[in-house]
Write a structure and sequence with these properties.
alpha/beta, Rossmann fold, seven-stranded parallel sheet, five-stranded parallel sheet, 12 helices, 17% strand
Length: 352
């Protein structure tokens, strides 16, 4: 069977898109070993993809949200930064990508690569959290965001297939799928032994950007005040933050197998990104999700679990209550369905 070559582009803001892409790529390769996907991503997503064993072409990094102490700045500033990024990424892709050699593009929210593929008539599959943004809180941001939503709606109709995590429009190319997570590498007991978890363990994740510093700081302060002798805390600050260890607190920067730590832990405290929440639910690990104020997507994720930004001040109360829950029933994932849709997409590519 001839090799079917394509690009797998990944939005590089944070690590959530990269973890989802790794899960999908591994699922695709299990069912279609003839597929070769070269990843396109900037840091920090690039680091996770390469450490997961995939080949990648380094793209310019996407901009982060501007935030201070867990509160997002005006959304229009990010949209301006992102428009600049799209121009830079477009020039890069036209110069460095081999559009004659690779026959398809799968893109997890990386719109520069998807747009260039559509422009060239290359079959394109797009994975998105949602088809509409609602981050704007001020008049100027609403105007800018409205223009961005209009552009995305027009562009999305040109894509062959779109997988969405949230409800989307009733377009023929849109398919909603369940949560997509990386499979855990071993049973929980073995992982706890491998990680030397001897006490109940709280895992605190800051995400792939610097926004999560407010959650890490508040969680460590609450843990210090609680003085739980039978509990330890593991803080994974991510690639853009540095956290010093403290009594009973072990710190890491970047962990490519964070999902295994989620399964091995007894409680996860996170900034309410879809990736970590979905991994916690799939593992049956209780989770406290504290969203950055003004981050509409994270606020929706947190609200679905009964949390809001102000709960950052209630961690001293929430931590003992959630630890007392024990293990929860694992929530089924949407991996198989999502991979099946992408297999159908690749079969149409192979027939062309």
């Amino acid at each position: 069977m001839d090799e079917l070559r394509g690009y797998f582009a990944v939005h590089s803001q944070g690590l959530g898109h990269a973890t989802r892409a790794v899960a999908l790529a591994r699922g695709l390769l299990e069912r279609r070993p003839d597929v070769y996907a070269l990843f396109l991503a900037g840091s920090p997503a690039l680091d996770l993809l390469v450490s997961s064993g995939f080949d990648a072409l380094t793209m310019p990094p996407a901009p982060d949200w501007r935030a201070s102490d867990g509160v997002l700045g005006p959304a229009w500033r990010w949209y301006v930064d992102y428009a600049r990024y799209l121009r830079i990424a477009r020039r890069f892709l036209r110069r460095e990508a081999d559009w004659g050699y690779y026959r398809f593009v799968i893109s997890d929210s990386e719109l520069a690569a998807a747009r260039e593929a559509v422009r060239r008539g290359i079959p394109t599959a797009l994975i998105l959290d949602a088809l509409r943004h609602d981050f704007a809180r001020d008049p100027l941001s609403r105007v800018v965001e409205g223009g961005g939503n209009l552009w995305l709606a027009r562009f999305a109709r040109k894509v062959d297939v779109i997988l969405t995590a949230e409800p989307g429009p009733a377009w023929p190319n849109v398919r909603r799928v369940g949560p997509i997570v990386r499979p855990f590498s071993a049973p929980r007991d073995r992982l706890r032994d491998d990680f030397f978890f001897r006490k109940k363990t709280i895992l605190v994740t800051g995400g792939g950007t610097a926004i999560g510093e407010f959650v890490i700081r508040a969680a460590m302060e609450a843990f210090r005040e609680l003085t739980l002798s039978d509990v330890s805390m593991v803080v994974v600050s991510g690639p853009k933050l540095k956290v010093d260890p403290a009594p009973g607190v072990y710190t890491y920067g970047f962990l490519p197998n964070l999902h295994d730590y989620v399964l091995a832990s007894d409680l996860v405290i996170t900034t309410a990104g879809k990736g970590t929440i979905n991994e916690s639910l799939a593992a049956g690990t209780p989770v406290i999700a504290i969203p950055p104020a003004g981050h509409a997507e994270a606020e929706r994720n947190a609200a679905a679990l009964g949390y809001r930004h102000e709960d950052v001040h209630r961690l001293k109360e929430l931590i003992p209550a959630k630890l007392a829950l024990g293990r929860l029933p694992p929530v089924p994932t949407g991996n198989s369905e999502a991979v099946g849709i992408l297999i159908e997409f690749l079969e149409t590519v192979a027939r062309r």
